[in-house]
């Protein structure tokens, strides 16, 4: 069954993707014979893949095939015949295709084809002599320009790639393989035992596929991973539910912490156990989608702090590994991802701006690694300052122990019982001279309001400036 029959509204096309179509467009109208010959080969390959091409591509193939014949390769009379047939076929496709007989002139006017070209076709079809070689070539040149205006340029603004979702059968196979891999991988990490009957059923599934019956849990997990990778490679796009199943508190975000000299981190054994699966997603260009989903966990106020911490640490692990991978650095002690053609530079440049919108106390665990991955010194310094200010758990307003408040002033008035009561709440070892010192240079208070305290100078508190 063809793709268009299985997926309503979609049409199977001969080009690999929209970029290949645009590449052909650029070659056709490059005005260089060598590039146009390359375009002709590409159009002929499309014709082999799909014999019935869309009218715009078919018309371009007809016209270009005729125009690229070297004039010195044959007598001018033979070349004129080829031009005449090409012109007739092009006009029939462009103005007479599926129309009733006798409506060609009306259709040609509707499609902005000039009258002289219609007359040229009439002379080819009904005249006793062919029009001149120059007239025929001028007609084909006009046709190529007309195709650019009517087909290639409008389509270049509309054409896009559609990724067909996997069939339900393939989804079921992927789901069962993925769930089994999760179970075995987690059991190996947590040193848990799986049900013997469940192990036997998975081993039977592996035997059916590979004609081998593994016994050890690690060996079973390896076979399951191969099945998952095979299923992923069969689809045009990794299903979104795949990533949702992975990024949960019972799988990738299950709490596995260890203390390091730099603070908390994901337990090394747990981190390394997921490296091969994450590499498989990286091979398919899905690692940025995983980062986005992890960040959504970090930004979700309804999710527990433990899960948010795991998500933030995973973002950092992936980002640091990607940077080392792209720079061909040693991966020892890091999440050991396998190389891929995907770098996600543009995606992460936009993502770091998005991350600023949802700053919280967990952002600091991965923001530096994102900023290091996408180099922009000026912007990165500003973002680091904002992140530090926003994620400071002590708050922006903290009072140091050596800062004296007005109630601590030793008023030079007569002592009273109230004063003695106030003294009992003062800190010990008060040195009167340390409270206030006469300021000779008042430039530090320039443009500041009256009544500021000694520690509130403009350099430390620019928001005081008026």
From TrEMBL:
Any Gene Ontology biological process: maturation of LSU-rRNA
Gene Ontology MF annotations: endonuclease activity
InterPro entries with a match to the protein in the record: Las1
Pfam family for this entry, one: Las1
A cellular component annotation (GO) from this entry: preribosome, large subunit precursor
Name recorded for this polypeptide: Ribosomal biogenesis protein LAS1L
Organism: Dendroctonus ponderosae (Mountain pine beetle)
